[in-house]
């Protein structure tokens, strides 16, 4: 500590460190570190910080062997006891000049490296914005590979594999790619073999073959393909926005990968961030396509309800075909009631020129059943007077069996099964009873159609929520807290829940800390009453975080882990886990519903997708912070370059000389007379003013 005080008085910033964490903490703020720890090897420390070291020996003499061992350990210079402070100051000044001389040539390279990193990060931001503007899958895939040129300028080619839901396999997009490898590599795609590159990328998340040693480890078949395509090195990145991978991005190099060390780590880090964004752009494209299909289905449902043709046909076909088979009918129709009163929905056994005639007969049959609420059972139409009002049509039907389809809930007529035959006595009482039974099943089919319609509408709403959240994240200028709050609000709204929270694990992994709550007006109340939740405490949220898996509790009264919420009765609760890229838990997203069974498996799937979007929002926030830090660092380095390294060195030299003056004054005070003390005070004050002069800062 005394030595530290002396060195600080010489104009240095000296700090005593007792372990490596201390060194790491002060390494950027102190220019002299006093390593007060016996037995510590110096070489790893010097290698890490690329600096000089002065050894202060505890004895007055050292043998040549000890000096040799010290030099082997990385000692630059040494002092023997008793230490002479002016000599220590001289050696520190000399070493500082040496270090500055070594650092000055590297400064332009450091500036260039930081500028390159900032340019690449800027390209990454532009690429993300470009991905946010495209929606069709083909356009997204082309945009993914096109922007690789800016993010990895040394790349010689890129292509992308995607999962084709229509063919149920991974495929390499022929239109999305450029340069080396595009259209030349044919991976085993269905299914990807574990030993193949695509299989490894999909399993591990990232595979790099950048060196000769890594290249030698791949299978001979894959290496042969690489040779044929002219690929020496490549980076393979999994594209995954949920539990299952959507594809893989391959970035290829004809020669050895040129970057190493921190430059390599930074570029691969940018590519991994880009892969995350690309995956969610693909997920958004899949959702866009699926949403388009859902909208088309909903339009078909609306059209079918209005005209009786289209979507429901698949539901009626087996009903009508079974009815015709049971009764041996030549022709058959199912007539549905809609807002127009009736419509022919589906028919079998009629020629094209007979459609209008049959339609007229169906109208008469439907009107009769609706008016008189009775079954039409005609065994010989021309001979049965009570049915002659149906004979006005030009139909050649002799036998007719028409049975109403009644809604079991309100008793209303919703449709008619109508069977016809050109032969008399074609249907009997047994046919009549069987068709009545079948009509009841037809009513179930009708309800199923409307249930499908409602389900499609709900699914469409869920897709819109995920799509809107992904679109919000792509707006890189959005505040991360705003994004997270919006995602939580939408999760609560679409699940019809009364309450929801987003919580993150504390740094020590002992607590869940709230970062967002919905409705937002409950934030102050929550902070006053709970603030955070111990991870080992009771509750479904902490239970999910401990087990690292989603928890869907449909009836909280039957769940021992449930703890009643301050917001009132909770019937069901759903918690999904936020995980990092390694699958480790980082927090939870939960919603609470008033009714038991108010939350379903579909809600769980929705929240799992939103949880992945939350993690992407966190990664975007980190990326923006890193970009800001890199810009600040570059500004500082450039400022130092313009001011000149030796301006700072001049200040240190002046401050060191001032320290020597003050130290000498203290020594002189013991030896001069009282009359000379005021002169020493003036000298000391002058030295203090020198130390107070403005200092250039790094």
Overall description:
The structure is a single chain. The chain is α+β, with helices and mostly antiparallel strands and 698 residues long. It folds into four domains: 2-103 and 645-691, Rossmann fold (3-Layer(aba) Sandwich), CATH 3.40.50; 111-274, GAF domain (Beta-Lactamase, 2-Layer Sandwich), CATH 3.30.450.40; 307-454, GAF domain (Beta-Lactamase, 2-Layer Sandwich); 496-598, GAF domain (Beta-Lactamase), CATH 3.30.450.40. The chain is built from 21 helices and 20 strands. The strands form five sheets. It has a six-stranded antiparallel β-sheet, with helices on both faces. A hairpin with a 6-residue loop joins β13 (399-406) and β14 (413-421).
